Every structure is written in structure tokens, then in C-alpha cells.
Amino acid sequence: MKIINALKYGFKLASLNVKLWSLLYLVNLLFAGLVVVPILYYLGDELALTKATDRLIGGFDFTLFSDFLNQNPEFLRLLSTQTLVVGILFISLYVFLTGGILTRLKNMETDLHRLGNFWIGCGKYFWRLLRLSFYFTLVHLSVAGLFLAIFSWSVKGGLEYFTSEAAIFYRAKICLFFYGFIALFFFMVHDYAKVLVVSSSRRSVFREFWGSFKFVFKNIGTTFGLYLLLFGLFVLTSILYWTLDGIIHRMGIPSLVLFLTGQVYVLLQIGFKLVNLGSVVKIMKNGVNE
Amino acid sequence: MGKVMSRLSLMLVMSCLIPDLSLLSAQDKWFEVPLSERIASYDIDVVLDTAAHYLKATQTIYWQNPSDDTIRTIPFHLYLNAFKNTESTFYQESYGSGRFPDAAHTTEADWGWINIDKIKIEDGEDISSQLRYIHPDDDNTKDRTVVELVLSTPILPRAKTILKLNWTAKIPKIKIRTGYSKDFYLQAQWFPKIGVYEPAGTRFAKTGQWNCHQYYPTTEYYANFGNYNVSINAPANFMVGASGTRTKVDAQANGTSTHYFHGEDIIDFTWTASPNFEVVREEYSGIELELLINSEYTCCTDRYLESAKYAIDYLGEKLMPYPFPKLTIVVPPLHGINAGAMEYPTLVTAPGMYGFPDWLRSPEYFVIHEFVHQYFMMMVATNEFEEAWMDEGFTSYWKSRILDDAYGVKNSVIDLPWVRMGAMEFFRSRYVGMDNIHLAESTRAGWEYPNGSPRALFYSKPATWLKTLEGVVGIDKMDELMKTYFNRWKFKHPCRYDFIDVVNEVVGENMNWFFDYVLYGTGACDYAVGSIQHVEMATADFGVWEDSLMVKKQNPLKKYRAKVVLERLEDIQLPVDVLVHFADGTEVWERWDGKARTHGLTYDTDARIDYVEIDPLQKIYMDINILNNSKRTKPDTRSIWAYVSSWAMRIQQVFQGVSFFI
Description:
Shape of chain A: globular
Mean pLDDT of chain B: 91
Shape of chain B: elongated
Mean pLDDT of chain A: 88
Number of strands of chain B: 33
Strand order of the largest sheet of chain B: 4-7-2-1-13-16-15
Distance between the termini of chain A: 15 Å
Largest interface: A-B, 71 and 61 residues
Low-confidence stretches of chain B: 1-18
Strand content of chain A: under 5%
Distance between the termini of chain B: 101 Å
Strand content of chain B: 25-35%
Number of domains of chain A: 1
Number of helices of chain A: 10
Structural class of chain B: alpha+beta
Number of helices of chain B: 12
Radius of gyration of chain B: 30 Å
Low-confidence stretches of chain A: none
Largest sheet of chain B: 7 strands, mixed
Helix content of chain B: 10-25%
Structural class of chain A: mainly alpha
Oligomer: heterodimer
């Protein structure tokens, strides 16, 4: 029941925060634009006068792509560098915005129509949330390294030793499954730690780091149950979207439809983030009250 | 006189000893009338020792002198000696390819060799002391892949001879093509095989000569046609597959089984053995299809078989129905993948993997490629050492045609919603993407290229120019000339001159100029629209009556003089179509012989030119840059915007996905 209530609360908060939703969407669009627009101008300079680009009307064209790369070998390096740099900036901005989002979600009942506190929250908690993200990144790297080591040990000798390839794949699947489970757990703890950071006035985040573990373990059924439910909904939505995307591609429906469908999916992704954080706020409130 | 008589009587005795196919049961015999000259036939009884990875064999070779020459030496391929040590030409050319570890990191189990223990002519004395290793292609005196028998008694013109051999071989760990990997065995190039004696007038031979090259990593085939009767003794739990048809299996008392195989009019014999094969058999168009597949790959069974059936039908219609009664498809396990993607008479290997994704048509790609080799090189038996393009190039061309026909021109190899690739465009990209497209002509022998044999010159370039030839002469003529070439030269040994002759004959004009470019030359082909210019023309004024007065009016219709400059940027000169599209929708098709460095077109028209496109139907498939083949007069980025918007969307989704976790 706690899970359903928290989830309902999350959906309610998300639905009441259309402005926040729009802001996050615009940020997303802007950063994608930062990657794409220079590329667009680059391609425009190189390809605007050739009729070969008509081959793109039906989607990806390997011949066009390979000839373009032969003539412009620097293109992929430019694209990847630009995506990486803009991606890092995007993540940093998102950490910045998370402070505001949590401040707003935490104070929703008293502060529904004011966005001012949102920006205050962004600035106030940025460095703390950034440090927290850094610590959790270390945790994730450790977990990933641990599972990689377990997998390597479990398939020691590789194809020389194993008579069955399926056995190796099976071990990979098992490791991936448990790794996914553990990684999800730490992602969830990270969310609770973020809420604790926003609820605290301390500059150090270590207490919140450990406090979130304590809280999650104490309420493991509710916290992880809620997270898995939300994650399941997200996966289901993603499967539906990618199936639809594949159908649209195969049917040769105009790319505008594909783009618009993609935007709906991005909006849903943002919605899931807000629902998730809103639910966590609710669980933590209930937990603290208890 | 007495000497001549004794030779004649010897020949008569010999001819009686040529394997008698009538001993085979009627159902085992393949052909009533031989398809080839059957110069070299083999009976081999081999025992596989799976504990030590040894082969022990007795072998009889029935060879007929095809010439009017007297033969004083006989060379043999001993190709397992390529894996004898680091001194072989094969190893030295392969080093650094990743397949051959550093000698310091190899064990005894890695190496392989073959040794002729005894050799006799008929039932004479052992003359193995008359064997000497030779290295006809290079100065590597340590190479042991060709051995020559110096005959005390020469073989007379047209005479038949019988050689009896006992030999032993150590099977190498599979590095490439042949060997063992755990309990999987693929035995290719595994027995002493006689070289090809080319009488004067055969291919490039001005006088009679042996053609028996050393073993190389990229080329390996040239052999006479013949019949093979091979028995393979292996542990009883091993499934054995081989070139030819299985005539019987005898269980032995020592826990082994002997598998008997028979093949006719084939140029080689290859076999495989493993206890882990699942066997799937099907009859299709009178051919027994046998799939030997690792039991973990059976989800792909249909993909291997259906692609083979498609290729059988396609080439059956375009060239000739597959004449052999059997096709065996071997799918090696991943640990033995280096034995995969190879062609042998009536047996092909195609790599497999557990959980192979549907969107990557690797099983189909390799089955079809290796099946096409049954035609080009197994039937039209060119010399792969000296003219690899005639084998791999023709195969790549036909493979691409079949794949693109079966699965789609743009997605026959990779078929994902947002990334896709067709077979023919894959080969073109390999050719136009070469580091140095002018590296070398395609006519060199395999070992004569700098830095090893560049595969793009054997596979991709010929496939691309054959597609271009198709564009130049038209698909109907192309099919006709290919069919003529195939049927004229099947079960024989043609060279490039023979193909060129057929092209000239069928096309009805001398096409040598084309081959001068694509085969003997190192040039590339690149046509471009250089510029489009418009000059507004003065138009005559005209008069109209207004209130009984003639009033001079300016002509409102504009006239343009449009000048187009076409350019040839590279050496190859090919005739090209040019499409000129005007803003009012009218189109003019031009034909340019493509010879001059530049070519001008001028039009006096009412409408401006919208765009000019050279070779809009992409007939000149080997043009290395399609981007400069056309030019618009006004920039148009709509399709770029539409496509890049899909990138933007993916980037948005990745960013947002990442943000979920931060």
C-alpha cells in the first residue's frame, strides 16, 4: 500500500509540475541541439549542393555514409568529441537542476506556484549533489569491476576450457542480471541520498551518503519494491516505444512522425524521473514521520 | 624398338590400374559421362588418431600425363608443412595477422607437419630418397610446402602412372583453414597433392610446365580434376563429413568407424570430424543437403539451409544447375572459427556462434559466398595463386547479386532499423575505402603484392568493376556473357584471356580497353559535375498596338544560356549518362564518352537548370565518390535536416536516459 501511495504521490507531483517538465525537456532539446546544429551546418556545407543526399529520404544509406567518411575522415572524431563534451555539460547541468527539482518537490504542498525556490535550490545544493554523484560513481565503478572480476573468474580458460558456448553466455547473463540488480539498488540509494542532502543543511555529504543506506535497508521492501515497479514501467514503456520505432522505420513513414514519437518518449523519460523523485520524497517523509 | 614396346606395355598395365568406377554400386557413381578430363585421381585410406592428433595414411595417385611432353619430375603440395615452424613462407606472410602467436607462446600442440614415409611407382621400390624440397616462388629454402620427386623412369606423353604413398602427418591447432581445435577437426590441404602439369597453350604456358606453388595465407588453389575414393577411420562417436558422398560406414572392433566417401570430377577433398555435430539432412532439387552444425547453433539451421537453397536456385538459373549430388555445410564451433568461411569441393564451412542475431546475415553471407565458389574455381578451375581475382572477384560479384536479390539491396548484410548495408555496396565501400586505391594492378600473383596480398584487390575491386561492366553492357548481356564463360570453361582451367575473349565475343565489340583500366591498370574512376553557370540572355523587345499606336514593350520571358562543366578527376575513362534537370521540370539526358578531362554542355532555355547528375542510375558502380556526381544550383538541406533530426532524437534519448541515474 505504501508503494502505491508513494507512486500515486509521485504521479501527482509530476502532473502538477508541467513547468518543470517543460524546463527539463527544453534543456534536453537544447543540449541535443548543441551537438547536432554544428554537425548540421558542417553537413550543409559539404552536402547541400549534392543530389546524393536524396538517398537519405529512405533512411540510412551506407554508400552515401561511406563515401562521405572517405571524403571527410575527421567527421566521426568531431561528432564523438562534441557529443562527449556536450554530454558532460548536460550531466553537470542536470546535477545542478536536481537541487531545484528536489527543493520544489519537497515543498510542493506549501509552495506550489513559486519557481523562485527552484533556482535557489539549484545553486544551494549543486556542489553537494555533485560530490554525492562523484562518490556514487566510484561505488558504481567498484560494483562493475567486481562483477567483471566474478565473470572473468567464472569463465576462466574461455573457449579453450569450456565445451559449451552457451555456458559462457549463461554465466554472462547471470552476472549481468545480478549486476543490474545491484546497480539498480545503488542508483536507488543515490536518489534517497539526494533527498537527504536537500533536507540537510550540512556541507559534508558523507552522513547523507550513509544515512540513505540506513534508510533504504530499514525500509528495503518499500524502497526497492517501489524502484523496481517504476523501473519495470520504464522498461515496458521503452519496449513499446522501440517496437513502434522499428515499425515506423520499416514502413518508411516520414521522419517527422519518427521525430515526434521520439519526443513523446523523451517526455515520458522526464516524467519517469519526476515520478521517481516525487515518490522518493513521499517515502522519506513517511519514513521520517514514522 | 624394344624400349618403345616395353614402355607401351607398361602404359597398358598402368591404364588397367586406373580406378575402376564400375566397382562402385550404381547409386554411388555420380556421372555416366565424365564432366572433366580426370587427370589426377586419388584413393586415400586415412586413420585419425585423436589422442595424438596424427594422421596415418596410405594413398594411391592415378595420374595421366596430359601433354606430349616427357615428364621427368613430379611436384607435390605438402601444405601441412606450412605449420611446421616459423620458417615457412606461409608463417612469415601471416605473422602479425593475429592468427599466429609469437613462436615463444606456442607449444608442440600448435604445430603441424606432413612427411612422406614411402613413395613407390606402382609396386616398385621405395623411392622416397628421390624426393627433394623446392621453393618455386621465393628464395625461402626453409619452406617445405612443395616437394619434388625426381623420376628415374620418365613418364611418357599421354601415359598414365600410379604412385603409391605412405605418409604421416601431425595436425596443427587451427590457425587458419585446417587443423584441430579441441575435438573438432577440419582437414583441408591435408594430403600430398600432385601439381598441375600445363601443356603448352594452357593458360600462360608457352611450353609444357608444372604449376605447383608454395602455400600462402591468401591463396591456395589450383588442381586438376579427378575422382576421389577416401576412407576415414575415426572414433565411433565422431560424426564425419567430407567432400563427396558417403558410400558406407563400417564399425570396427577397436571402437572406431571407417567412413567411405566417393567424389567425381572434383579438384580436392576435405573432411571434418567432431563428436559434437548435429546432422540435418534434406533433399533439395535432387541434391542432398547435409548440415553439420554445433548442437548449440541449431536455432540457425534454417538460415544456413534456406540461403543455400536460394543460391542453388539462383545460379541454377543464371549459370548451370549444380551438378553434384551433395552439398555439405559445416558450421565450426566458435573455438574453431578459423576453419570457417572456406570453400572445398561439395563442402563449405560457414562460421557460427551461439545466439547469432537475426539482423546480421553472417550465416547467409558465408553459405552463399562459399557456395558460389563451387562454380568459380571448383568448376571453372582458375589458378587462385596467380589470378586470385578470377576466383574471389567472381564469387564476390555473384554472392552480392544473390544476397541483394534475396534480402534487399540496402539491407542484405546488416538489417537494423537505423543502420543497414547491402552486399554489393559493402564490397564497393571496401574498394573505394582502400588506403591506396592505386596500390597495384589485380593481375599479380598472390605473393607479388607489397605488404602481403591486399584482399580488396581480389575481392572488392573485381566485384565492383564486374558490377560496372554490368552497367556498361546491360544486365542481359552480362548474364549472357557470364553464362557463356561458365559453360565454355567449366571443368577446365581458364585464365583472364579466356574471360576477356568471351566478353568481347558476347558484347560484340572489343572491350579490351575496359580491362586495360580495371585489370591491368591501377587508376580509379571519378566523375564530377564541376560547375553550372547561367547567363541571362537579352530578349528581343516587341510591339503592341495601343490606341492605334505601336508601343514598344520589353519581353517578359527570360532566356538563359546555361553552361555545365563535367569533369573527369581520375584516370579511368568510361561512357556516362548525364541528366540535366531544369526548374520547369523538363529533363535532358546526355551521353558523354567520358574521355576528356572536362566536357562542356550548353543550353539556351527558358528555365534555369535545377540540377545536373552524372550517372544517376549508378551504372558506373566503381565511381569512387558519389557525392560529386551531382550538383544543384540551389542548396537543399531538407533531406539532411530530416535525417539529422533522427540523430538529434537519439542523442536526446541517450542524454535523458543517463539523467535518470544522476
